[in-house]
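Structure first, sequence second, as always.
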């Protein structure tokens, strides 16, 4: 299941069903991230351990041997032992044809460029507030970072005069990255004095799935509360997940249960998993509703969408697709309704209306052939 949310400047429920074919986080840890910083490179592409762990290992490991390929025990520092395998992996990553990216990512900057997901609550915390420590310690670290960036900017300004047009373009991209780091430092400095930064820094990824999800939701709540971001995407469960929900007294993996073949026992188990996920989501909404924001609450001033990539997992069918929309959107969203779309209405028709509610006057979005009036 995935959640997309937008907070509007300064609650009601809406269920959308039948006929529907920029901080990003994930609660997934089916395979732990580990390994050396070694990398495999081909012209135009580089495969690092982090990329391998995020996009390849979840589907190609000792437990889930997709296409018979096992990568979790292969060493990037000794690529000569498996040159053909690594070349195939890098070519697929470079071409954007790796299906694993679609299983582990729900946000994209382009047709073949996935946004990286972050599963570690501590990393999310440090991106939001800087490394753990007292406000004075964080300020001292950031001041050191700032002086380094100033030095780099001076050097690159002198270098630009001697570069060709192509190299100046590459240097310009690099300077854009530097400026983004500077902006992050400035934003973090501005947040240091806020009481919310006293939030205890997480130690890492919790063993408990429920604790992991709750911690990520807490961080997203704080991100909204302090206006660190107004958009987030959150993945509760990756595609092809083999997570086993022992806390629900279920012994089969989620993916196997989703292929229930209409067996009553498996259908009931699948319902229990979905109900459990919605319950975790409801707790998050409760927190947003309890936090004042202007003339209402954070939930009043947000539009949050909960759904998945499949309408019927047993047959891998995207139809019918159900989506839950919550929040008032500062009056843009009318709640307490159940809208049944027409047969085979593209999901893009729904998102087109959402875009227009945010003053993005689009006539068409993706495969849309109209609009669903929310």
């Amino acid at each position: 299941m995935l959640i997309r949310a937008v907070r509007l400047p300064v609650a009601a429920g809406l269920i959308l069903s039948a006929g529907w074919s920029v901080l990003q986080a994930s609660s997934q840890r089916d395979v732990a991230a580990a390994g050396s910083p070694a990398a495999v490179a081909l012209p135009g592409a580089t495969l690092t351990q982090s990329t391998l762990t995020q996009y390849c290992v979840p589907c190609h490991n000792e437990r889930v041997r997709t296409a018979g390929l096992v990568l979790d025990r292969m060493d990037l520092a000794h690529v000569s032992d498996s040159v053909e395998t690594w070349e195939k992996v890098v070519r697929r990553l470079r071409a954007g044809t790796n299906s694993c990216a679609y299983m582990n990512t729900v946000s994209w900057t382009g047709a073949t460029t996935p946004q990286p997901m972050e599963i570690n609550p501590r990393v999310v915390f440090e991106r939001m507030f800087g490394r753990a420590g007292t406000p004075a310690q964080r300020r001292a670290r950031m001041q050191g970072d700032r002086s380094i960036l100033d030095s780099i900017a001076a050097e690159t300004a002198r270098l630009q005069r001697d570069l060709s047009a192509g190299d100046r373009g590459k240097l310009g991209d690099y300077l854009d990255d530097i400026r983004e780091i500077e902006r992050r430092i400035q934003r973090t400095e501005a947040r240091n004095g806020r009481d919310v930064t006293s939030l205890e820094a997480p130690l890492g990824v919790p063993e408990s799935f429920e604790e992991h999800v709750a911690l990520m939701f807490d961080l997203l709540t704080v991100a909204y509360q302090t206006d660190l971001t107004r958009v987030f995407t959150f993945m509760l469960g990756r595609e092809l997940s083999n997570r086993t929900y022992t806390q629900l007294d279920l012994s089969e993996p989620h993916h196997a249960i989703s292929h229930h073949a209409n067996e009553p026992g498996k259908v009931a188990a699948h319902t229990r998993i979905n109900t459990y996920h919605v319950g975790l989501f409801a707790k998050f909404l409760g927190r947003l509703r309890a936090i004042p924001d202007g003339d209402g609450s954070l939930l009043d001033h947000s539009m949050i969408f909960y759904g998945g990539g499949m309408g019927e997992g047993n047959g891998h069918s995207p139809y019918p697709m159900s989506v839950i929309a919550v929040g008032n959107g500062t009056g843009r969203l009318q709640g307490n309704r159940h809208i049944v779309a027409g047969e085979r209405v593209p999901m893009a028709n729904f998102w087109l209306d959402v875009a227009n509610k945010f003053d993005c006057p689009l006539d068409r979005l993706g495969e849309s052939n109209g609009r669903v009036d929310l």
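Margin note: The longest helix spans residues 165-191.
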